[in-house]
Write a structure and sequence with these properties.
188 residues, alpha+beta, six-stranded antiparallel beta sheet, two-stranded antiparallel sheet, 3 helices, 8 strands, globular
Length: 188
C-alpha cells in the first residue's frame, strides 16, 4: 500500500504531503509505476488546470507506459512530440527532453521500491542529457529507462530516447538521484 506522510524536511515544500510508491510484494511493476504517476504526482499538483502547462500534459496525457520490470528496475514509455513541446525550429525542446528523462527515469525506481528503499523516488542530484539527433513535432519515440545502480542513498539511472519507426537513438541521459526515504521505523 502507498504511504502518505506530511513532512517537514529540507527540499520539501512546507506542508507538502509525500505519497510513496506502493511497496507490497504482490503489486506488479506496471501498477507501481502508475501509482507513482497518478498517486504521488496527482493532477491537483499541476494547477490551475491540467490543460495548462507542458509539465502537466507530459505526465498525465502524453506519456504511455508500455512496460515495467524489476530486474533491474526498467520502464519503457511511448511519447509523440507535441508542437507545444517544441523549440522555434519545430523540434523537441531540450528542456522538455530533460523533463521527459527526469520523469521517465525516475519511474524505473518504482518496480524495485521497498519500504525505506526508494519508495519516495528521491530527488535529482544530476541529470546529464546528450542530444544526438533532432526530434521533430509529430515524431513517435520510445523512452527506455534502466536502473544502473541503486544503493541506500544514491542511484544512477540511464535513459535512451529512440525513434519508434527505426530504433535510431535520438537522445540519451544519465540521471543521479538521492533517496529521501525515511529510515524504516524512524521519524519523517
Amino acid at each position: 500500500m502507498a504511504s502518505e506522510k506530511k513532512v517537514s524536511m529540507p527540499g520539501v515544500a512546507e506542508g507538502k504531503k509525500l505519497i510513496g510508491v506502493p511497496t507490497d510484494d504482490d503489486i506488479p511493476p506496471m501498477a507501481r509505476v502508475n501509482a507513482l504517476f497518478f498517486g504521488s504526482m496527482p493532477k491537483d499538483d499541476y494547477q490551475p488546470s491540467i490543460e495548462e502547462g507542458w509539465g502537466a500534459s507530459l505526465i498525465h496525457q502524453d506519456l504511455t507506459l508500455l512496460s515495467a520490470d524489476t530486474n533491474p528496475g526498467r520502464t519503457t514509455f511511448r511519447y509523440t512530440v507535441q508542437p507545444s513541446h517544441c523549440n522555434r525550429l519545430g523540434n523537441l525542446h531540450g528542456g522538455c527532453a530533460a523533463t521527459l528523462f527526469d520523469v521517465c527515469t525516475t519511474s524505473a525506481l518504482a518496480p524495485i521500491a521497498k519500504e525505506g528503499y526508494w519508495a519516495y523516488a528521491g530527488v535529482t542530484r544530476t541529470l546529464n542529457v546528450t542530444y544526438i539527433r533532432p526530434v521533430p513535432a509529430g515524431e513517435s519515440v520510445l523512452i527506455e529507462s534502466e536502473v544502473v545502480h541503486a544503493g541506500k542513498r544514491l542511484c544512477t539511472i540511464k535513459g535512451t530516447m529512440r525513434r519508434e519507426s527505426d530504433g535510431a537513438v535520438l537522445t540519451t541521459c544519465e540521471h543521479g538521484k538521492v533517496s529521501i526515504d525515511p529510515v524504516v521505523g524512524g521519524k519523517l
